[in-house]
Design a protein that fits this description.
heterodimer; A: mainly alpha; MetI-like fold; B: about 325 residues; mainly alpha; 13 helices
């Protein structure tokens, strides 16, 4: 099968994958909301009107108001922006650590492999959330970027594994032996052969990292360790928890939770769709 | 087997060593100076120095590291800043609750997840398969605290079927009533965590059952005229379980994370809630100690899982 034909078939397989398409549409909508947040809702901060605190959803406040009398719809919309930002930073950091570690392990092998994979395994074993909590707690100034950075630093192992296994697979192929004999530069082998082949599985993994980084960010904010100035879904839930309104004002916690769920489900569905399109055996006969 | 076990334990020790070094560095290199937080202006200089000495904060960093390691092997994790008593004693009261929560969750998740995954993989592409998959994905996507609070609100406050927090009712301390009471307190936190981790096991088992079902020995089993039920649930499931059990070991680390959130929501007196409280009080010795003990528990449980895998799959021993 020619390369174009295979590509065409994969795209077709993805387009007919219902969950994958739902995911793609969801991700697109989230990105649009994040980009156009200033046109959708006025940002809120500080204190609102006392008479307007904990109002249920109405035509004026679609998602109701919080314990400070602030509009929750606006907070959820602006939270989308923070979430996308956290996801992108975390993913970027994860790639810039994971890919080099994976390449060193899979291409140069030997000591690099022992150390690289040893580290990967350790990072996969130890409980990440408590470690992230400890790190966020000792850093006194937690801006949203710092939080994203910390999450990224602890998210690279899966990328390293994928890059390594692709590198090992490609290095075992005969055409690569031939390429090496012809004196083709290592950098060209790495970029043209290994990274091109690894890019799709890495991309599938990135969508998963996007999803988990938001769960982690929400957890950190929920525990009160997030950026106090940024709008974050986890922070809204923290406010709901601390104000004791979890039981009485259902809208306070419901809407940010739904936002988290839509975000995570969209990215997970997207990764499922891509994975199944590339590996049809798993999903169909 | 002996050699495999030895290798596994050495790996565990290295992991533990790196974990504690990492923790030490993170906690010591923080921008905020713990000494200033600890100090009260009303103390005399001599008292302040005495206090620094008590907490071991007067020495240079490498020396602190050496004494930290030395103390650790004696089971001494230092003193809590806030409670002014050994961290080890505090953790000893808390750890059993976290372990109970995690082990029950792990067992129930495997018991439900493996059959669901097997069935879903066997009927792949069917409506039921899509349904199980969809529910699993929703499971991983729900934000734990919200699920916890919703369950708490419905079953605790409204229906009054389960207690609204804690791990036991003070006053009931012995015998069957105590055990029943503890189980009652465990139900909602366990449901929360099971829902969260079910998907991973379902999807893993589903993937491997699909692989296993195309193997030759399955065809042989069918050709021998074995009942389809036996082929699926005995021959195929046994082999499909290996990757799932392996992943169960890998999941432990993230399960601890889920436990922190769940314990916070349900006011469950485990190590996770202790971490949450210590964050609020900036009690670094507690944070550090809790993390070390959690990591150690996960590493030990991982070794146990690996041994279990070697028992399930004799090929592993040959490696």
């Amino acid at each position: 099968m020619s390369k174009e034909k295979r590509y065409e078939k994969e795209v077709k397989a993805f387009l007919s994958h219902r969950l994958g398409m739902i995911g793609l549409i969801g991700v697109a909508i989230l990105i649009l909301i994040a980009v156009f947040a200033p046109f959708i809702a006025e940002p809120v901060s500080g204190y609102g009107e006392y008479e307007e605190k904990l109002l249920p959803p109405s035509s004026k406040y679609w998602f109701g108001t919080d314990d400070m009398g602030l509009d929750l719809f606006s907070q959820v919309i602006w939270g989308t922006r923070s979430s996308i930002r956290v996801g992108i930073i975390a993913v970027f950091i994860a790639i810039s650590i994971g890919v080099p570690v994976g390449l060193l392990s899979g291409y140069y092998k030997g000591l690099f492999d022992t150390i690289g994979m040893g580290l990967t395994e350790i990072f996969l074993t130890i409980p990440m959330l408590p470690l992230i909590i400890v790190t966020a707690a000792v850093l006194e100034t937690t801006s949203i970027n710092t939080v994203a950075f910390i999450i990224g630093i602890f998210s690279w192992p899966s990328i390293a594994r994928i890059t390594r296994s692709t590198a090992l697979k490609i290095c075992g192929m005969q055409y690569l032996e031939a390429a090496k004999c012809l004196g083709i530069k290592t950098s060209k082998i790495i970029f043209k052969h290994i990274l091109v082949n690894a890019s799709t599985p890495i991309f599938v993994n990135l969508t998963i990292i996007m999803a988990t980084s938001i769960i982690t960010e929400s957890a950190i904010s929920f525990l009160g360790l997030g950026d106090p100035l940024a709008h974050s879904w986890g922070k809204i839930l923290n406010n709901a928890h601390l104000s004791g309104a979890f039981g009485t004002a259902w809208w306070f916690s419901l809407f940010p939770s739904i936002a988290i769920m839509i975000f995570v489900v969209s990215f997970n569905f997207l990764s499922m769709g891509i994975r199944d399109a590339l590996n049809p055996r798993i999903s169909r006969e | 087997m002996g050699k495999y076990l030895q290798k596994r334990i050495v790996k565990g020790i290295i992991t533990f060593f790196i974990t504690i070094t990492l923790t030490f560095l993170i906690v010591r290199l923080m921008p905020a100076d713990p000494t200033t937080m600890l100090m009260d202006n009303r103390l005399t200089v001599a008292q302040q120095e005495q206090m620094l000495e008590d907490f071991g904060l007067d020495k240079p960093l490498p020396l602190q590291y050496v004494s930290f390691l030395g103390n650790l092997f004696k089971g001494d994790l230092g003193l809590s800043f806030m409670q002014k008593r050994p961290v080890m004693d505090i953790i000893k009261e808390r750890l059993p609750w976290t372990l109970l929560l995690m082990i029950v969750t792990q067992a129930i998740t495997l018991l439900i997840g493996i059959p669901l995954g097997v069935y879903s993989g066997y009927r792949r592409g069917s409506k039921i398969d899509h349904f199980i998959n969809g529910i699993s994905i929703f499971g991983i996507s729900i934000f734990v605290p919200w699920l916890g609070f919703t369950l708490l609100y419905i079953f605790g406050y409204q229906l009054k079927m389960f207690p609204v927090g804690g791990a036991f009712t003070p006053g009931i301390e012995q015998g069957l009533p105590y055990i029943l009471d503890v189980i009652k307190h465990l139900v909602l936190p366990v449901i929360t965590l099971v829902f969260l981790y079910l998907a991973n096991y379902v999807l893993y088992t589903r993937g491997s059952i699909i692989d296993v079902l195309s193997e030759d020995y399955i065809r042989t089993a069918r050709a021998k005229g074995l009942k389809e039920k036996d082929v699926l649930w005995k021959h195929a499931t046994k082999n499909a379980m290996i990757p799932t059990v392996t992943s169960a070991g890998m999941m432990l680390g993230s399960m601890v994370g889920g436990a922190v959130l769940t314990e916070t929501v349900f006011a469950y007196p485990g190590v996770g809630r202790m971490i949450y409280q210590a964050v609020g009080q900036q009690d670094y010795p507690i944070l550090q100690g809790a993390f070390i003990i959690l990591a150690l528990s996960v590493i030990i449980m991982n070794i146990v899982t690996d041994i279990l895998c070697a028992y399930l799959d004799p090929r592993i021993k040959l490696e």
